[in-house]
Amino acid sequence: MSKEVLIQLSACKTAREVWTVVEAMFTSMTKARSINTRIALATTKKGELSMAEYISKMRSLGDEMASSGKPLEDDELISYIFTGLDHDYNPIVSALIARTDPLTVGEVYSQLLSFEQRLELQQAADSYSMANAASRGRGGQRGRGRSRGGHGPRGRGRGSNNMPPRPNNFNTQSRGGHQGNNGERPECQLCKKRGHQVIDCWYRFDENFTPDNRYAGTTTASYGVDSNWYTHTGATDHVTGELDKLTIRDRYKGHNQIHTASGAGMNISHIGHSVVKTPSRDLHLNNIVTPANKNLVSVHRLTTDNSVFLEFHPNFFLVKDQATKTTLLKGRCHKGLYPLPSSFPKQAYGAVKPSVERWQSFRPSFVSNSRQIESNKQSICDACQKAKSHQLPYSKSHSISTRPLELIFSDVWGQAPSSASGKKYYVSFIDDYSKFSWIYPLKFKSEVFQKFVEFQNLVEHQFDRKIVTIQMDWGGEYKKLHSFFSRVGITHHVSCPYAHQQNGSAERKHRHIVEVGLALLAYASMPLKFWDDAFISAVYLINRTPSKVLDYETPLERLYHTKPDYASLRVFGCACWPNLRPYNSHKLQFRSKQCVFLGYSPLHKGFKCLDISSGRVYISRDVTFDESMFPFSNLKPSTGRRLQEEISLLSPSLLNPIVPGEWVQ
Question: Where is region (Disordered) located (predicted)?
Fold first, then answer.
């Protein structure tokens, strides 16, 4: 405890008295803290704070209330926030209070922040309008005036003796006490009613409200009334008053201005980028500055940035491509102006989402005393590339083969554990037209050349066609084939290093074959050393399975125009009994024995049957199957139906397919 607390507890004689005094002390402190925080909430004003700073301060006070044991509900905190706002925020406060659905602090913060941005835009537009009024409304004299109504700025103005004074819409009062506008009530530029300005108009946030079109051209700030882009040959840069038209925008922190023909200067608040979509291609509007009363498209900037030219005719205008002279856009003349066509969908302007790199490289600079802005070009950040480089997305292939052997995909799979026959790899060949697959087990990768020659002789003689193109990776086993392909006239395509996705058909076929092959081994509880027989059987089944890619035809049917014979299919690894009468040495030998089905012989119209006890493989057409019995699962019943990699019953040289009567060496 602190020294102060110990002093208060020095007179206590029991622990109960100590806790009673401590409770009384801190209860009163918590109560006082809660009262002071409520007073701070009720008296805090936004003032010169930004909306983000103000809401953050109010939330901090709300958190203090929660820490004192009396948390505020959202409605109560929102009421404190509304109380501290200036009169400028009355329209948005009224609109939010009128809502029937519950409000959250986050939603109120979002709405107020958006309203604050609109206020800044309106004030900038008002400053521009007052500057024009000051330069036109005073003839033959020079003086100083201070605005006392609205948000008018203070400044100097010089008039011309030949220019008659014009009335303006700002209720200002000079130092001499003269009242501007002859005491007339202000007229709202949105709803056209007198007694209030557009900043206080109730309809400002009503999306269903439509103003009178007769006054669309008289508004001094853009609130969706006139959203057209007008082509302007006298503008050196694009200007707008609507920030929502900009896809990439950033607040301008410099001191340069945009000067109009009257000599008045507009402070630049933001700078950004937008896009106008046409049926042929996008037109980019670069380096758009704000604010302005109208959306103006600089003809010079439009033609320079997009390599186009414009043709102006009495009743229409054309935007044409400089290179091809084709018409990209056609617009009509409207009341002496040439606006870009507004028949595009709402998202036509600024439909491009800015990337992080664009935000990083967006650093526009201005030339003093002019409106020339440096061209915004996308740059590459060296540090980001070093830190974040990754594979780019792959585009979808749209090429379609129309005949067999037009395109062959090939790849080598492995290295796998050595099979019973000593194989560690296999090479696959896939016909793009039919999706038919061939695989050849290999002991070494160097055998790829020999296996391709075998495959080439097989298919070219079967279909009386030549292989046109072959796609593969640039592995060492394929490099010696490149010169061979050049001699025989086969187009050779290879994937980039470490870009296996470019040979995606072969990679996906690997996955299909391996998954089906492992499933066959697992179901029959066979050891992994039989993976080559399982994979050959898997390819045999895949070639006879209907495919959605082939409109539910089988690869066999698409390539050979023959229906598959499903009656001959048997479960891999099941028990089988081949007819062994021809191999008996005397008449009392058994006519058959239990074997394991290892698949289909590529050379015979028969089945491969493994005799586990002798290590002999028989190939026979006269076989009886029990597809519910699996001999390998019965060898070690405790292991169940799973892969039995540890089983080593046969030497690696015993399981090559042989003709009847031949012994495995």
Answer: 130-184
pLDDT of residue 245: 65
Question: At residue 235, does pLDDT exceed 90?
Answer: no
- The correct answer on CATH 3.30.420.10 for the domain covering 407-550 is yes
pLDDT of residue 18 exceeding 90: no
Q: Is 231 helix (H, G, I), strand (E, B) or coil?
A: strand
- How far, in Å, are 117, 254, 272, 286 from residue 251 at the CA level? 11, 9, 9, 15
Instruction: State CA 96 to chain mean position distance.
Output: 34
pLDDT at 378: 54
Backbone angles phi, psi at 435, to 5 degrees: 65, 15
Report the run of H or E that residue 599 belongs to, with start and end. strand 595-600
For the chain, give the mean pLDDT.
75
User: Contact, 534 vs 542, CB < 8 A?
Assistant: no
Reduce the DSSP state of residue 617 to 3 states and report it: strand
Residue 273: which of 353, 357, 345, 381 has the closest Cα? 353
Give the separation between CA 214 and CA 637, rounded to whole angstroms.
Answer: 93
What are the structural domain ranges in the chain? 3-85, 222-386, 407-550, 570-665
Residue 415 preceded by cis peptide, ω within 30: yes
Phi, psi of 441 (to 5 degrees): -65, 145
Query: Sheet containing 327-332: which strands, arranged edge to edge?
Result: 308-312, 316-321, 327-332
**Tokens 């800044």 — which residue?**
120
Q: How far is the C-alpha of 619 from the C-alpha of 582, rounded, in Å?
A: 13
Task: Tell me if 610 sits within 8 A of 598, measured CB to CB.
Answer: yes
**Cα-based distances in Å from 443 to 214, 439, 452, 650, 663:** 87, 13, 15, 18, 22
* Run of H or E including 29: helix 15-43
Closest CA to 596 of 618, 581, 579: 618
- The amino acid at 266: M
pLDDT over 90 percentage in the chain: 23
Q: Which residue type, as a one-letter code, is found at position 551?
A: D
pLDDT tens digit sequence for 587-623 = 888 889 999 999 998 888 899 999 888 878 899 999 9
Q: Which two tokens stand for residue 472?
A: 């593969």
Please spell the DSSP secondary structure of 296-338, one letter per residue: EEEHHHHHHHHTEEEEE-SSEEEEEETTT--EEEEEE-BTTB-
Integer Cα distance of 139 and 158 in angstroms: 8
DSSP track, 530-564: GHHHHHHHHHHHHTTS-BGGGTTB-HHHHHH----
